[in-house]
Each structure stands twice: as structure tokens, then as C-alpha cells.
Amino acid sequence: MAGRLLLRTCTKTLQLRSHVLATRPHRAMGTLKGIPTDEEQAAGLERRVMQAFKQGKDPYSILKPKQYGGTKEDPHIVPCIGTKRLVGCVCEEDNTAIVWFWLHEGDCHRCPSCGSHYKLVHHELPH
Ligand SMILES: [Zn+2]
């Protein structure tokens, strides 16, 4: 009786083992076709930014800002969530002093030192 029970247990164990060894290991990439792209892997904030880039938007100001001439026709654009903003102008490249002035919503304003034009543009926060 005990011998038969032992034989049955050993047979069952060997069958289970052979089944486990016979199956191929599951790979995460097995069901996909190739390596997933960045868009497929992105999640959270990164995914939101990638979707905004597809629509041509830069909600978090990640990209380098556009260069403006500072003339009356092409003023420096200053994004703002309110109606006024304090702006610092480094008038010349080698200047160590910054000229500070308030920029108000509406028409262009000029730097009192160098004369560059600045314009305040309303900006919505992305969240
Ligand atoms: Zn200036």
C-alpha cells in the first residue's frame, strides 16, 4: 500500500516537472513585433508632452525659445499668467548689470537703456 502510494506520488511529480520543463519560457517581447517605441512606452507627464508635441504645442516650455529681433515689428515675447511682469534686460552681451523694468499688458514696451522692444503675451498654464 505504501509502496503504491509512493510510486503514484513520484510519477505525478515527474509528470509535473516534465510539463514545466517542456514549456518555453515566456518573454515579455514575445507577443510584440519588435522593440516598443518611445511613444508606446511613455507614461504620465512624458506621454502628455509627447502628445502635445504631435499637436505642435510646447506646454511646459521644454524647447528652446524662439529668438526675436527686439525691434518694434519683432518684439521679444514675454509669456505671463497675469497682467504685468518684471523683466530684466541684459542690454549688451558683456554687461554685468541688468536693467529691470515692469512690462504691462498691451502695447510693446522699450527697454529704457538699449531700446529693445518687449511685448507681454498671456500664457495659460498647462495644468
Ligand atoms: Zn536693454
Summarize the model shown.
By secondary structure, the protein is of the alpha+beta class.
Give the number of helices.
3
Q: Compounds present?
A: zinc ion
The best one-word shape is: rod-shaped
How are the strands ordered across the major sheet?
A: 1-5-4
H/E order of the elements? HHHEEEEE
The chain-level mean pLDDT equals 83
The count of β-strands is: 5
The percentage helix is 25-40%
Structural class: alpha+beta
Share in β-strands: 15-25%
Q: Rg to the nearest angstrom?
A: 33 Å
Taking pLDDT < 50 over at least 5 consecutive residues as the criterion, the unreliable ranges are none
- Measured between the Cα atoms of the first and last residue, the distance is 74 Å
The largest pleated sheet is described as:
3 strands, mixed
Organism: Scomber scombrus
Protein name: Cytochrome c oxidase subunit 5B, mitochondrial
InterPro entries: Cyt_c_oxidase_su5b (IPR002124), Cyt_c_oxidase_su5b_sf (IPR036972)
Subcellular location: Mitochondrion inner membrane
